[in-house]
## 1
Amino acid sequence: MEGESITVRHLVSHTSAIRDNWDLYGYPGWSGKEGYVKGDSSLPLGEFLETAYVAGGERYFPKENWYTNFAPGEQYQYSNFGAALAGHLVEEQ
């Protein structure tokens, strides 16, 4: 939900409200229909996540990228992208 904070605990417990929206994440080296990356992406993970989960990003689609019927911390929904964001945060520290 807009304006809600997401913690690392939310990310690692899959309660962040981040939705895996595979259909909208077409970028060089990835085929959404196959569901996996063929080779390395030309877009670094941090940039990809920023374009998808920060308002104004080219892949930012609130209704498709977020669960809007509950806030972070309220419900478990497995999220590959949430786990990727947690990994990216650790990598950057």
## 2
Amino acid sequence: MEKVKKAAAHLKREIGLFGGVSLVAGMTIGSGIYYLGSYVLERANMSMGMALLCWIIGGVISILGGLCFAELGAEMPVTGGMTTYLSKAYHPCVGFINGFSGFLLTGSGSIAALALACVTPFQEEFVLSDIWVKIIAIAIICIFTVINLYGVKHASSFQNFSMVVRVIPLILIIFIGIFFGKETPNLNPGTAIQEGTSFTGAVSMIAFATFASLWAYEGWTNLNTVAGEMKNPRKHLPLAIIISMGFITLVYTLFNLAIYRVIPSEEVNSMIAGGNLYLGTETAYRVMGNFGKWIVMIGMCIGIIGTVNGDCLVFPRTYYAMSRGGYFWKKFGELNSHSVPGFSILMSSAVSIVLVVFNSLQQLTDLLITTSALLNLLAIIAVLIFRKKYPDMKRPYKVWGGVPVIVLTILFFVVLLVNQFVSDIRSSLIGFAIPVLCIPVYFYFRKKNGGVEYNNDELEELE
């Protein structure tokens, strides 16, 4: 074991700007865009104009959040990402809550949900039982666990490949839908506002629909987690987030517009009512037949697999950093002979497999989104705390627009979370309860490992 430690004393810097862009895009563009458009449309009272507006709002909020994260990542380019930021801004307990929530649900649950989402579209085509869907999903997790155990270079290379491939079906649907679609959808957002609806009611409806889109945009926080493995994090990390999220917002909006150009609104309504949520696949089928349908399904599958790979790459780095800081089992803080946190990767995948066994795709999606949004909000607030707490810290990048933009981003997230809590009390309560349940676990590790805080020496070592 000592030999392994000496051979892998530091994480290797092997991720460049394109690797960063592909990592963010790869972990964001996944299964969500193919079916969440149906949920957004439902919550927007089946108004296509309002649904598109909500996709744009969701993208803007995600970009603003990404800009805040870029400042944190540029001033503190360390492995561990949000867990490290929350520990330094608030208290190690808050950082631990983020990391342990990721281990139990948000990180491992994302891997599990994506693995299931990769297989689900093929269930009807190949007449797969629910058990076989789960078996194949577990096999996917195992394959990418092995790939990530052999080093970040291999995992990053596959991420670059899958990022390019996954964009092909999206661009294909956008092109054929916008240029060959014959429908003229009603894009007036006002059709979603029913007569007599109050201003508060209208804002609530928009917020509820926008919140549904955030799962499709989720992924913009994860590049910071591997900042310690980027070649030039202070320069490339902000650029990677801005480029990738701007591109994704444009693609998502045009993708949904393309669908509306091909499928009449009445048929869209009946499809969603009947449980057929994959409108993009139907769009390709109507324009190009079975060939187009399979091109989209295969591209979608490769894209989701790439997201699984990205999650297996990123999330274990958080548990590694927590262990190095004294807040997790010590085994998680060891690197293998390929300079990656091997045990952390294995255990993250093990929890993901357990979640696959005991949950459906819909159950996992509902559980993930509220907890993720809450922790993202705390990290955005941390930008202001860092400026106050560490005024002399080197900041090669600062949020464009300054404090007003940061405050606006915070208000956006608060409104969305409050509205989600009112609209979906059950899922929201679970989402808020998970971080609370992590608190006693934190004190257990504090007592067990001495509760050593992250300090400058530790951060330098992680860099």
## 3
Amino acid sequence: MNSDMPLSIKLKKRASLLELSWSEGDVDQISEQNLRRYCACSGCRAKKQVGVELMTDNASVTELVLMGTTGVQIKFSDGHDRGIYPWGYLRAIAQGKTEGFLND
């Protein structure tokens, strides 16, 4: 799993997608809903472990905050702003390979 920082990060609001372009030429797109669904903060992870669904009707991304070279904090319109997504985890979300990624 490549955890290098992507070459570009674009929030495509009309399409409700986050697009990440990687150095080897891959381009991943993740829906805003999946970003919210796979939030990696401790509160969301605890809810997922007991079977609580994290989706809201208002899960659009309002802000992206780079966290150095390791990942990005994503803030959502439902008020949730605690999730920090490492680059490798974003790639895992895009590829549908999140199970066990964060030692759930």
